[in-house]
Amino acid sequence: MSFDIYQVDAFAERPFSGNPAGVCILPRQAPEKWMQAVAGEMNVAETAFLVRRDDGAYDLRWFTPTVEVDLCGHATLASAHILWEERHLPAGERARFQTKSGPLVAWGEGDTIRMDFPSEPVTAAPPPEALAQAVGVPFTFAGKNRMDWLVEVADEAAVLAVRPELRAIAALGVRGVIVTAASASPERDFVSRFFAPAAGVDEDPVTGSAHCALAPYWAGKLGKAALNGYQASARGGTVECTVAGDRVVLGGRAITVLRAKLL
Asked: In 3-state terms, the chain is what percent helix, strand and coil (to 5)?
């Protein structure tokens, strides 16, 4: 039996930017070991696996090349994009997902896909000495949520200057480390980078789930609910964020770059 598999650039303004995600739509649940092997073969930050439920929603799971993760924004955006583009769902219908982080919903507004995600605010915490060594530049704030450490540094130049000690980050006992600062551009509110070597992703190009922490953090600092974030990786990508209570609406664009048969 063969399966359709896609590669989609998510949070992308043009092909070969943003964050590439694999998307595989299955007729039934597959063994976890097999999905992990496929994600390793795809070798992108995350590959999403979808199975349609009787109620019309989709069970959705995400795998990096080495582990399963509980929450992934860009591969959810890519999944919704493929469901509409390949006509698994009508263009105007919302995409509904059941995941390890609860129910998620995506919908289209023009060429932008918006997703309703749980807010993952960080709580200020004393940083371990290893965190400062791992980041390698001074930071003005350190906080933690259930997945990651978030540190704020002096400015956008400091974010770009980070050369992390990846082995030290992997030893922190968290999924990853978010480094952020206010943007130097009036078109953006903040910039960030994300490092997750423990999950098999040294630097993620654009991380939707990290913006579930970044959005409430910067909303609190800037006093505004709607924000634009830019993840300043080599590929780069923009994430539109709106904080709504204990939820965050993330927005971005997606471009299919590959259609294939998984044999």
From this structure: 25, 45, 35
Domain membership flag for residue 117: no
Under 8 Å between Cβ of 144 and 150: yes
- Rounding to the nearest 10 degrees, give the CA dihedral for residues 206, 211, 217, 220: 120
User: Annotated catalytic, 46?
Assistant: yes
pLDDT tens digit sequence for 151-184: 999 999 999 999 999 999 999 999 999 999 999 9
125 pLDDT above the threshold of 80: yes
Q: In whole angstroms, what separates CA 35 from the centre of its chain?
A: 19
pTM beyond 0.90: yes
Secondary structure E strands in 11-136: 19-26, 46-52, 58-63, 68-69, 95-99, 102-109, 112-118, 123-124
Same-domain pairing of 140 and 83: no
**Gyration radius of the chain's alpha carbons:** 18
- Provide the angle, in degrees to the nearest 10, between the axes of the packed helices 73-85 and 208-222: 120
| Residue (of 73, 78, 63, 72) closest to 33 by Cα position | 63
- Residue 45's domain is classified under what CATH number? 3.10.310.10
* 188 DSSP 8-state letter: -
In contact, 225 and 189? CB cutoff 8 Å: no
User: What is the C-alpha separation between 255 and 237, in angstroms, rounded?
Assistant: 13
Give CA–CA dist 117/5, Å, rounded: 25
From the list 13, 46, 68, 240, the catalytic residue is: 46
Q: Given the structure tokens 């471009």, which residue do they identify?
A: 255
